[in-house]
Design goal:
- With 274 residues, this protein is of the alpha+beta class.
- The protein has 2 domains: 145 residues, Phosphorylase Kinase, domain 1 (2-Layer Sandwich); 104 residues, Transferase(Phosphotransferase) domain 1 (Transferase(Phosphotransferase), domain 1, Orthogonal Bundle), CATH 1.10.510.
- 39% of the residues lie in helices and 18% in strands.
- It has 7 helices and 9 strands.
- Bound molecules: adenosine-5'-diphosphate (ADP) and manganese (II) ion.
């Protein structure tokens, strides 16, 4: 984790313009001053050139597309832009306090609602997601590559195209195929792929996602990408098995709706853990 704010600042046109746009984006989304400063330091270090459109506004975090630079083909014809994704955890709400139980294993209100404590807690969540993404990457699981973490700002690989469009969530995927049978086969293959991912997550990363559903999986060209792992828990957590059963239940329900003849809960649980 690099420290922020020590860059000298570049005065060339591209980065300078990026900074102005970044300022605008942060203003529009009403990010607090410290978060703005972190974004500015990331721009100065040329990790991103600006904060662009918001991809998602969630309860606990917003996700932004952050371009770095354009890339050309051999003829110098513009072919796209290298994007990164910036997940910015909100520092001003209390709802995430509930998530504390994922860490402690119990449902306790440990926070008096002071802003200073919120910051610490949010930082803890961002750190957890960053480290979990590292674990997933080391295990070779398809997920965003974590690039940098600074307080409540997590910069990671952008899962999407050169135009800033993120890959669809599994929830929104409409598979194309030669006929209904082909599409049914593809859904079944994705189900099997996902069971393999959950198993490797458990066995190799020694993690349970704990919020796994069609909303936290992105899809591109037959590959499933796991995202949103801030609440994932290790094997030492007292509710590991409960979370795993819940994850497997969600997955099963989704693929059944897609017409897949899913395996029994017991069977998939044993597959993942044994
Ligand atoms: P939340 O805690 O708000 O659910 P997520 O990590 O699930 O946060 O991200 C919310 C949405 O942002 C995702 O559904 C996805 O559309 C988009 N997103 C998150 N990470 C990335 C990424 N690395 N690349 C592209 N899109 C992403
Ligand atoms: Mn999510």
């Amino acid at each position: 984790i690099a420290d922020g704010g020590s860059g000298t600042g570049h005065k060339d046109n591209k980065v300078h313009m990026g900074r102005e746009k970044a300022d605008r984006a942060t203003r529009d989304q009403v990010l607090d001053r410290r978060t703005e400063a972190i974004i500015e330091s990331m721009v100065r270090k040329e990790l991103i050139s600006e904060l662009q459109g918001v991809i998602s506004t969630g309860k606990e975090a917003n996700v932004y597309a952050a371009p770095l630079h354009t890339y050309d083909d051999d003829e110098g014809t513009h072919t796209g832009t290298l994007y990164r994704a910036a997940k910015i955890y909100k520092t001003s709400i209390l709802s995430f306090v509930d998530r504390e139980r994922y860490i402690t294993g119990e449902h306790r209100f440990r926070n008096g609602g002071h802003k200073g404590n919120n910051r610490k807690m949010v930082k803890k969540w961002a750190e957890k997601e960053f480290r979990n993404l590292q674990r997933l990457n080391r295990a070779g699981l398809a997920c965003p590559y974590p690039i940098q973490l600074k307080a409540n700002v997590l910069l990671m690989e952008f899962l999407g195209d050169g135009e800033g469009h993120a890959y669809p969530r599994l929830r929104d995927v409409e598979l194309e195929g030669t006929d209904d049978d082909d599409i049914a086969q593809q859904w079944r293959a994705l189900y099997i792929q996902l069971l393999g991912l959950v198993r490797r997550l458990y066995q190799v990363c020694r993690l349970v996602h704990a919020d796994l559903s069609e909303y936290n999986i992105l899809y591109h060209e037959r590959v499933l990408y796991i995202i949103d792992v801030s609440q994932s828990v290790g094997h030492d957590h007292p509710q590991t098995y409960d979370f795993l059963r819940m994850d497997l239940h969600n997955i099963g329900a989704f693929f059944r709706r897609k017409g897949v003849d899913t395996l029994r809960d017991r069977t998939v649980f044993e597959f993942a853990t044994a």
